[in-house]
Specification:
Shape of chain B: globular
CATH topology of chain B: Nucleotidyltransferase, domain 5
Largest interface: A-B, 80 and 79 residues
Distance between the termini of chain B: 48 Å
Number of domains of chain A: 2
Strand content of chain B: 15-25%
Number of helices of chain B: 6
Distance between the termini of chain A: 43 Å
Oligomer: heterodimer
Structural class of chain B: alpha/beta
CATH architecture of chain B: 2-Layer Sandwich
Strand content of chain A: 25-35%
Helix content of chain A: 25-40%
Number of strands of chain B: 7
Strand order of the largest sheet of chain A: 8-9-10-11-5-12
Order of helices and strands of chain B: HEEEEHEHHEHEH
Shape of chain A: globular
CATH superfamily of chain B: Ribonuclease H-like superfamily/Ribonuclease H
Chain lengths: ~300, ~200
């Protein structure tokens, strides 16, 4: 908790000012999370200060919230190209990504609980940088990152705004951004290393090395190529639906039968149904051939 | 989706049981040429409730499947040719988007775009400016695909229904057909002979 607070101060997230009389002041809370190692032992206790963004009023506190996210097709296209050109694919993770965003609107927030300023207990925080929970947090972060990449000489693809490219006669580097996960690949691994260093100078970024796990998809590189699969995601899904012990089938849909939405008894728990179908849709990222069966369920 | 019945839950369990047997399957990307080809297909009036058809397509870059779709069309088609033709238009749009994406990356394709379709009349409709009394109401798709074909931007070629890969996105199959199509899509286990290489 103290560490998060120090990080916020070091980041120059806000300055204290007297309470404004006409503007709405957003409240906040601390959210606690237990981080575990893969074996279940406790890694660390994590505290995060979040603003109650749902109290913000559209048109007054914020305007556009749209932020592009990368399309799965673009990811597969880039991965396919990297395999064909035999490039290294590296993966980066941005810590406290949303705190890097710069707000272009005026937002006031109450002082965080337990860390009120002794001299000015009645003052409020005037936010300079974005904070988790704000409606614009994602957009502010994305704008900051894309501006930074453009300053490094990258250009934004017109076809998919979360894809950035660096092209010169001898060098080609592609960067894909999914919120705080970044994939970077290029024709020269030295140059890729250089760009990672440049980014690390500006943001706190963890270099996770060779691409191995991205958006729930495992990537295994070997001399034959790149294998993309969702073993962990599917195992978790089967576990949560108590299907791990089920007898496997060789085909996902029975040929000849068609589902009609007007026939039969209604399900008692449609929410669970929707959750599972949503999860199955996510599984189609690496399982194109089940998309027909899953499509029939929607 | 808003009020699912029990039959749907049984279908969900089928998919889950299938996944149970293929937990470690995934897409395998291998080095190949930078050329793009696509397969498009559709069923006709497959939905028993509103009689709309389903578009299915798969786009390959070299030997790697990068984009696919299995989606119910937004309007009812009056003939199977029309349904196939709409799926052809959707696939062409996807191919063009991907090509523009590649152009943005300054990567040029080593061959022209090719599109494989198993419906002879839909191909005829795309390549020849013939008047067809049953097609007069689909003007926009008609002009969109035709223009690309006439300009030789895209080559539409015929493929037999047995080899039509996009079939997997439009209908259910028997186990044998299904496994055949799955292999064609390069969905497999991590090759066994190479696991040793990984461990070293």
């Amino acid at each position: 908790m103290g560490r998060q607070f120090d990080a916020l101060l070091a980041n120059n997230t806000w300055s204290l000012c007297p309470r404004p009389s006409h503007t709405h002041v957003v409240r906040n809370k601390w959210v606690y999370k237990l981080k575990r190692h893969p074996d279940g032992s406790i890694d660390r206790y994590k505290a995060r200060l979040v603003a109650k963004g749902f109290e913000q009023v559209p048109g007054i506190d914020y305007f556009d919230t749209f932020s592009p996210v990368v399309k799965p097709t673009t990811i597969r296209l880039i991965l396919s190209l990297a395999v064909s050109f035999n490039w290294n694919i590296r993966q980066l993770d941005v810590s406290n990504a949303f705190l890097h965003g710069i707000l272009d609107e005026v937002v006031y927030m109450e002082q965080p609980k337990g860390y009120e300023d002794h001299t000015f207990p009645d003052h409020v925080c005037y936010l300079h940088k974005s904070i988790y929970g704000l409606k614009k947090a994602l957009r502010a972060w994305f704008t900051r990152l894309s501006q930074q990449l453009i300053d490094f000489g990258f250009s934004e693809s017109k076809m998919d705004y979360s894809l950035f490219t660096y092209n010169s006669d001898t060098l080609r580097v592609f960067v894909l951004v999914y919120v705080d996960d970044i994939i970077i690949t290029g024709s020269d691994s030295q140059a890729v290393r250089y760009f990672i260093d440049q980014l690390q100078n500006v943001f706190s970024i963890k270099d996770l090395g060779e691409l191995s796990f991205f958006l729930g998809v495992e990537a295994i590189r070997n001399p034959a190529g790149l294998h993309l699969r969702q073993t962990k995601y599917i195992t978790d899904l089967l576990n949560s639906t108590y299907m791990l012990g089920a007898r496997p089938l060789r085909c996902p849909s029975s040929s000849g039968s068609k589902l009609s939405s007007t026939a039969g008894e209604l399900l008692e728990n449609p929410t669970e149904y929707r959750r599972v179908v949503g999860a199955l849709q996510y599984c189609t990222i690496t399982r194109p051939y089940i998309s027909y069966s899953v499509n029939q369920l929607c | 989706m808003h009020s699912p019945c029990k039959l749907y839950w049984i279908a969900v369990k089928r998919v889950l049981r299938y996944l149970k047997g293929t937990i470690e399957f995934g897409l395998l990307y291998t080095p190949g040429t930078i050329a793009m080809h696509a397969y498009c297909d559709s069923d006709w009036a497959g939905n028993p409730d509103d009689r709309r058809s389903t578009t299915g397509y798969g786009v390959f870059l070299g030997s790697n499947l990068i984009s696919w779709c299995s989606k119910k069309q937004s309007v009812v088609s009056r003939s199977s040719t029309e349904a196939e033709y709409r799926s052809m238009a959707q696939t062409t749009a996807e191919l063009y988007w991907l090509r523009m994406l590649l152009q943005g990356l300054q990567i040029t394709l080593s061959a022209a775009l090719s599109l494989w379709c198993d419906n002879v009349s839909a191909i005829a409709l795309a390549s020849n400016p013939v008047f067809h009394s049953r097609m007069k109401h689909i003007e926009i798709d008609y002009h969109f695909v035709r223009k690309k074909v006439v300009n030789h931007d895209i080559q539409i070629q015929h493929i037999s229904t047995q080899d039509q890969i996009a079939d997997v996105f439009t209908k259910s199959h028997t186990v044998n057909q299904f496994c055949f199509l799955r292999d064609k899509l390069c969905v497999c286990l991590l090759p066994h002979s190479l696991r040793g290489v990984l461990e070293h």
